[in-house]
Amino acid sequence: MDFLSYLPFDLPHPALLLAGVLEGTVLAAVLALTALGLSIVFGIMRVVNVAHGEFYMLGAVLAWFVTTWVAAVTGGPPWLGFAVALVIAPLVVGAIAAATDWLVLKRLNYDPEATIVATIGILYIIQQLALTFYGPYARPVEAPFDFRVATPYFGYSGYKLVVVGAAIALMLVVWLVLTRTRIGLVMRATQYDRETAQAFGIPVDKVYAGVFALGAGLAAIGAVLIVPIRQADYLMGGDPLLLSFIVVILGGLGSLRGTLVAALFIGLADGLISTIYDATLAKILATLLVAMVLVFRPQGLFGARAA
Amino acid sequence: MIKSILLHGAVIALLIVLEPVLSEYHHGNLARILVLATYAVGYNILFGYTGLLSLGHAMFFAAGMYGCALMVRLAEWSVGPAFLFGVVCALVAGLVVGMLALRTIGVGFMIVTLMFAEAAHLTIAYYNEYTRGDEGFTIPQAVRTVAGLDLSDTTTRYFAALVLFSVCLIGSAALVQSRAGRVLVAIRENEDRVRMLGFNPFRYKLLALVLSAVMAGAAGAAYAVLFGYAGSTFASVQYSIFPLLWVLLGGPGTTLGPLLGTVLMFYLVDYASGTVMPGLAAFVEGSFGIEAPGLASAYLLLVGIALVLLVLFAPRGVLGVVRARVMPWLP
Amino acid sequence: MAADEITRGTNRRTLLKGAAAIGAVAAGSQLLPGAARFAQAQSSAPIKVGFQVHRTGIGAAYGRWYDRTTKAAAKLINENGGINGRPVEIIAEDDGTDPKRGAEVIEKFANKHECDVAFGTLFSHVVIGSAPRAGELKLPYFVVSEGHHVASGMLNRYTLQPGITDVKSQVQSMAPWVADNLGKKVTMIYPDFAFGHDHRDYFSEAIERQGGNVIAKIAVPPRETSFFKYLPKIPKDTEVLYHVMVGPGVLTFVKEMGEYFGDDRPEIFGFIDSLEAVDIASPGLEFLEGSHFWEGYPRYAGPNQSEHDKFYRAAVGVDDNGASLSDPKDISTYAHMFGCWETLHILKAGMEAADYKGPKDRQALIEAVENMDVFPESQAHPQGSKLFNGRTHQAFAHQHISKVEGGKLVPVHKTSIFDTYYEDEVDYTKMSF
After folding, report:
1. What residues of A are in the C interface, CB distance below 8 Å?
2. Whether residues C130 and C185 fall in one domain
3. Helix (H) or strand (E) holding C177
4. Final residue of a domain: which of C240, C269, C295?
5. Residue at C228 is within a domain
6. Is A289 an interface residue toward B (CB < 8 Å)?
7. Model-level pTM?
8. What's the rounded mean pLDDT across residues B52-79?
9. Do C187 and C231 share a domain, yes or no?
């Protein structure tokens, strides 16, 4: 093991490595959950939805409202409110997204630049409505169940591992829907060639509204799952927006497999580099690393080269 | 061409004439707006004319700001040379980022510029010892002089900002009406055709990006010396999105759009946060007895609504509409 | 060494003199009912106070409570006859927790609203971005920021911080108690930006003076949303873990600390900033039981509550647990917001001492405040007595250490004002106006 002494850094303590891997995996799951909806919307509609992070924030804020309300009305355990939130939040957020598509995006004919501007506007509208009705506070939502996993070095939240599992399950479901069902076929047909799909009698308008709602709903489900390990606050949409964009681009346009690999890559890069270097320096290096991958492989890890 | 010279001359003349007329409040606002509009003019060269949407321009603004402010703070340079150094920093940053980021297109370009800017923002935080990070530092009033002129004096500041803005405005107008400018527009419309005609689009895009970065950096350095503060907030994502909004509002691909957009957005935010939303909140409280502290602060709601309406009904910005309907010759 | 002793000696004498004065002034103030001055009002035009407030952006939770406290203080002052017989009008403008907008708002106060003074705001970058403009516009700017920027000499003659102690005072005054009661080997975990670095630098110095040392310094990057991966960097032989965090991720930070340690934790000492506006009884925070916090002003009303605190709480609308009277889930920023209340009262006292009539008396107002040295505990100063250093424009006050017991914060130690004092780093009174 002598050669290790030539490494440009000291090997981190195993406790640090373990924490880096665990946290990196959780971050990857969080990113996969938030990027999933974005990836579908981006892949199928070729729409850059800047307001995606706000749909995520809305999901978290709704989770707070629903769990608080259920606890107050029924006095039931935390998992009850959580289960209700898991159903209500994506439905409400999906409906809002469908309305947005119908009121704004459709009228813009999904023109890329116009959509970016419109969704920046929608971002502000959603964020400010949250500030008005929810307030500026970061509020906690209790996990439906929690247990502490003991490692040789430290304790770890069991719920975080559940989030990892949920992320995998959700991705699997979405993949199955896209590849094995009629709805998925319709979506892929629309993605492949919009005009031809229309000619074959596919109601492209409805598919688009549905896809946009699905993307937002997935963001909301992700938010409900994640909010017990974070909090709900009205500015929380910014962070996943940037990171999940990066994940989607890095993974390659419309490639679910790419999204997953990119989420893992970014999560683990962030987790592990920060165990070796000073944390802020690690963030700088990780950011530059991802940027360089994109510079030298603009089509992403798994995407076909864009026309 | 004559029309264009007359138009730009008239705008600059108007800004000169306004100086003694404006109330103190609008006078102060306009001085700041001119600095920010310089940033927007630079952004417009890349976005409006060349069709490249950068989400990382704050790094160029910050390169100018810190290049200048740190030289004043640490090396005790006087602000004149420090300003030039800031502009050089932005130029170098533009070259380096351009060489790399211009290998990508479309959304890839947005993300790569965003990430370089994020790395720059974090770098400012990392070298906190020198930069004071997010908190930033002031540049004492006493050293903010150039050739014996006190830049913190309101009139001097106004004219300093106006000179900077005018140079960049005329520069951008000259550029877009030159042969190189027409190549940039052609790249925006159809890059492949430009390549087929025997031009090297990369070199023109790099030119646009570097010029854009230089103007952004000049604006950043000017902000530091005119308003006496440098801080890493100016390197954050928000400050990359601002010039995009200003340009979109005023009219991308029009020389005067950036100024108009910056003015409109400034007063929209100012009016909405100071008057409309608190008034609305008071009305709700008075009529329905509901206390609405959140509503009073939700002025960005109006900004959001304005953006959506704009893109639905005037997607080419105010001057884009004017050009389409009234003045087709508008540069 | 010798020179150091002399300055410390001088400071101590100044302080003792001040401490004696506190008693005298407190007695005297009883004789001056506010209404007596009301009759002599010459002009009834309101005194306009431009209030720079974080309504949006990351400071919004603080801003909302700064707003409520300020309104309550203004209401009280007006009920008692206003300032020099003139009512106070608070003109609030959102600074967006942004230094550019902050500077713009200062200009708006001076040039559009024609305010007499500007006041408010917490986040240091907004203060530092705004102060140069306040100085150039010659607008007195009273900040409630707890940053060391005022006393460090970075700002200008027009910027003052008389209502709250700065971070340097807060941090250094904690070291003796921490070293005596919790341990001498300290690991610090703090945000990697200026505020965190102030904690790192001032506490490291202060604990070394107590014979202790900081064995590890863990900086967390700005805008981090998960913190767990930094915790294994805490050395095993840590006796005291010192934490301070700000922003919306604070609860995650503290919860993850609990998951990490379980039952086997070192002594934990935190700044309440890590849990300001957050309920101590939130799920996941049980492990904090028995740990300690710095508090600028104790959040929970204990058995020793002063009548002034009782009055202040009721006026602002805060219950005995530090939450809003109308919504027990709405936790106040109790350790900081008192600064708004006290600053407005100092403004009143300053304007009355300077016989303030209008903007031309702004210099006289600054000089009047610079001449103050003691703020005795009173309705106007419910947090407690303070000493004000006119040269550095900075106030010094008692600090509190509280222990978490039964999901509440129970005060266990109150520092002397002397613990917060440090040598002058600037003399603003020597600067021209």
Report:
1. 13, 15-16, 18-20, 22-24, 26-27, 131, 135-140, 142, 148, 150, 153-157, 229-231, 233-236, 239, 271, 274-275, 278-280, 282-283
2. no
3. helix C167-181
4. C295
5. yes
6. no
7. 0.87
8. 95
9. yes
Please check whether residues C41 and C115 belong to one and the same domain. yes
B290 touches A at CB < 8 Å? no
Judge contact between C121 and C139, C-beta under 8 A.
no
Chain B: closest CA distance from residue C129 (Å): 6
Domain map (residue ranges) of chain A? 12-146+159-296
**Chain B neighbors of C56, CB-CB under 8 A:** 297-300
Three-state secondary structure call for residue C296: coil
Q: Looking at the structure, tell me whether residues C160 and C176 fall in a common domain.
A: no
Q: Chain B: list its partners (3+ Cβ pairs within 8 Å).
A: A, C
- C55-69 average pLDDT score: 88
Distances B137 to A299, B165, C142, C161 between C-alpha atoms, Å: 41, 25, 18, 18
Q: Do the Cβ atoms of B327 and B319 come closer than 8 Å?
A: no
Could you tell me which chain C residue has the CA closest to the CA of A228?
Answer: C252
Residues on chain B touching C433 (C-beta within 8 angstroms) = none
Helix (H, G, I), strand (E, B), or coil: what is residue B137?
strand
pLDDT 10s digits, A44-98: 888 888 899 999 999 999 999 999 999 888 888 888 999 999 999 999 999 999 9
Where does chain B show beta strands of DSSP type E?
137-138, 145-146, 149-150, 229-230
Are C219 and C271 within one domain? yes
> A243, A31 in Cβ contact below 8 A?
yes
CATH of the domain at C144: 3.40.50.2300
Tell me the HSE value of C302 on the side-chain side, using a 13 A CA sphere. 14
- Counting the structural domains of chain C, the total is 2
Residue at token pair 């009262």: C345
For residue C161, being part of any structural domain is answered with yes
* Cβ-based contacts of A137 with chain C (< 8 Å): 61, 277, 330
Helices of type H across C30-96: 35-38, 60-79
Structure tokens at A259: 């999204």
Do both C101 and C65 map to the same domain?
A: yes
Rounded to whole angstroms, the maximal C-alpha distance in chain C is 68
Residue C219 belongs to some domain of the structure: yes
Mean pLDDT of C65-86: 93
Q: Is C273 a residue whose pLDDT tops 60?
A: yes
The highest-level CATH class for domain A12-146+159-296 is mainly alpha
Show which of residues 150-209 on chain C sit within 8 Å of chain B, judged by CB atoms.
Answer: 154-156, 192-195, 197
Nearest by CB: B25 against C112, C136, C156: C112
Domain that holds residue C80: 33-165+329-397
Asked if residue A55 lies in contact with residue A220, where contact means CB atoms within 8 angstroms, the answer is: yes
Residue type (1 letter), C132 = P
Q: How many whole angstroms separate alpha carbon C166 and alpha carbon C425?
A: 13
Over the stretch B160-198, which tens digit does the pLDDT of each residue have? 999 999 999 999 999 999 999 999 999 998 999 999 998
Q: Is residue C320 part of a domain?
A: no
